Amino acid sequence: MADINEIYKLVQYRANKSGFLGNISPNDFNLIFPRAEIKYFNSLYAQYYKTQRISDALSKFFTNPIAVTLTGTGTYTTPVNLFHVDAITVDVAGVQYPVKRVEKDRLANNLSSKIEMPTAKFPIYSEYDDLLQFYPIDVTGVKLIYLREPTTSVWGYTLVSSRPVYNSATSVQPEWSDLDIDNIIYLALQDIAQNMRDGMLQQFSQLETQQAK
Questions:
Q1: pLDDT digits (tens, 9 = 90+) for 36-53
Q2: What's the Cα-to-Cα distance from 182 to each of 50, 88, 187, 194, rounded to whole Å?
Q3: Cβ contacts of residue 66 below 8 Å, gap of 6+?
Q4: Burial classification of residue 199, based on how many CB atoms lie within 10 Å of its CB (0-12 exposed, 13-18 middle, 19 or more buried)
Q5: How far apart are CA 191 and CA 206, in angstroms?
Q6: pLDDT, position 196
Q7: Span 173-208, pLDDT tens digits
Q8: Residue 41 and residue 176: Cα distance in Å, rounded?
Q9: What SS3 state is found at 109?
Q10: Which pTM does this prediction carry?
Q11: What is the pLDDT of residue 153?
Q12: What whole-number distance in Å separates Cα of residue 81 and Cα of residue 149?
């Protein structure tokens, strides 16, 4: 798997290969490459389960089942890297039962319904900005699996004679496979081309992105 320094060099090389004559500074790279990562991540998520290839690419970002202790009011503050709740279960006498998500506009109906009212065996939850609310509120714990956001890659450097020199100690390495990295690089090149108004680079990166799908 390529490290962030190899990726930075590859972005420079492919940009120059397409005819781009400008310089991609470390600060520009550290701005553009993470944006490309998120754009690629979102595109995979939008097509999740459609192909094995996409499922494999996202699999590393799913957490193992996490035992979650709820507050006395049935709430859980979500982790800052949570992108999507994949599954929640509750343990009743050693058996895991699914916890159903209920959208907020349907919550009142569930709580007042004699048929759909949540129970300890079949609880429900609603998702808010930074917390999950569970019902009945006396549910004490659940198991959570979620899709987390990828870490933000960073090309760290120190200045030597006013020139940036790669520093692995301050860098953050990408979590993607080499195949995914290729796709992300071309997305980054598209962003560079749009900002620099480089038609040749934009055409090159769009063509390569289409071929990489």
A1: 999 999 999 999 888 999
A2: 21, 34, 9, 19
A3: 143, 144, 145, 146
A4: exposed
A5: 10
A6: 60
A7: 999 999 999 999 999 988 887 766 544 445 544 545
A8: 10
A9: helix
A10: 0.83
A11: 97
A12: 5
Give the closest residue to 68 by CA, choosing from 129, 120, 143. Answer: 143
**10 Å Cβ neighbour count for 55?**
14
Span 130-143, mean pLDDT?
96
Domain boundaries, the chain: 4-59+150-212, 66-148
CA triple 202-204-206, angle to 5 deg: 65
3-state secondary structure (DSSP) of residue 5: helix
DSSP string, 169-212: GG-B---S-HHHHHHHHHHHHHHHHHHHT-HHHHHHHHHHHHHH
Q: What are phi and psi of 85, to 5 degrees?
A: -75, 120
In DSSP terms, 165 is beta-bridged to 158
The whole-angstrom separation of Cα 130 and Cα 85 is 12
**pLDDT band at 17; cut points 50, 70, 90:** confident
Rounded Cα gap, residues 213 and 210, in angstroms: 6
Give the Cα separation of 38 and 120 in Å (integer).
Answer: 38
Distance of CA 98 to the CA centre of its chain: 24
Q: Residue 55 and residue 7: Cα distance in Å, rounded?
A: 24
Q: What is the DSSP letter of 168?
A: G
From the list 39, 25, 43, the residue with the least C-alpha distance to 187 is: 39
210 within 8 A of 29, measured Cβ to Cβ: no
